[in-house]
């Protein structure tokens, strides 16, 4: 049997995992607030927590801009807030050695959580300072977020960048192998790329005197959000 030296070679199969990272500055900030009080008098801790929640809600309502139908305006500095139902939990009070301080009494904890979304980061800074001065109110932290439109754009962008990375690597392999034509034959797309946002940063920290002055708050620098994506791609190199 005679082999035909001019017969076309079978295509080389190249399987690449394309990777990409796309970064964006956060457009929204979600502040988690915890309102709570503990004590042996159930009615007292409940009352303290309810008063604190109402005070926070009053502060929020002054900052929220609403449309004629009552919905929050897209241009409002605060775009959303939610208040969880108050819960009262009985427990026991122990010292550092595990001994009960008063075996005949129950320790009650009244608690509610408030989630606030900010569009205006200067208002976020002012609100952080106000809340930090309120009794029975604690701040659990800030999550940096994007609008739905920006999330959709980044999702598409990271996929395209990952595909581009795979194509560039396949072409580089093909050149080394002496192949001139690279054809994409299969793409396996990941369903979810969605990321964790980076830790919050501050551009400037107010002094103690500044922080508690009327209308003065902390100036927050929005955190960066990173989206990392992978795409599995197969190519034929001929």
Automatic annotation (TrEMBL):
Family matches, as Pfam families: SIMPL (PF04402)
GO BP annotations listed: DNA damage response
InterPro entries, sorted: 26kDa_periplasmic_antigen, SIMPL/DUF541
Top-level taxonomic group: Eukaryota
The protein's name: DUF541 domain-containing protein
Source organism of the structure: Cladophialophora chaetospira
């Amino acid at each position: 049997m005679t082999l035909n030296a001019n017969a076309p070679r079978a295509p080389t199969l190249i399987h690449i995992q394309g990777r990409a990272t796309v970064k964006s500055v956060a457009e929204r900030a979600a502040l988690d607030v915890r309102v709570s009080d503990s004590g042996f008098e159930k009615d007292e801790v409940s009352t303290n927590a309810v008063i604190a929640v109402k005070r926070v809600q009053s502060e929020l309502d002054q900052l929220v801009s609403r449309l004629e139908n009552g919905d929050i305006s897209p241009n409002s500095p605060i775009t959303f807030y939610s208040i969880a139902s108050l819960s009262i939990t009985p427990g026991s009070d122990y010292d550092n050695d595990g001994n009960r301080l008063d075996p005949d009494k129950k320790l009650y904890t009244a608690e509610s959580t408030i989630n606030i979304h900010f569009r205006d980061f200067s208002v976020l800074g002012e609100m952080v300072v106000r809340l930090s001065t309120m009794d029975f109110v604690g701040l659990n932290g800030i999550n940096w977020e994007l609008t739905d439109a920006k999330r959709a754009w980044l999702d598409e962008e990271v996929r395209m960048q990952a595909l581009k990375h795979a194509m560039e690597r396949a072409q580089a392999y093909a050149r080394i192998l002496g192949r001139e034509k690279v054809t994409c034959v299969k793409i396996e797309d990941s369903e979810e790329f969605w990321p964790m946002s980076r830790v919050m940063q501050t551009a400037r920290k107010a002094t103690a005197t500044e922080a508690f002055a009327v209308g003065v708050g902390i100036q927050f620098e929005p955190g960066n959000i990173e989206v990392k994506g992978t795409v599995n791609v197969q190519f034929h190199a001929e």
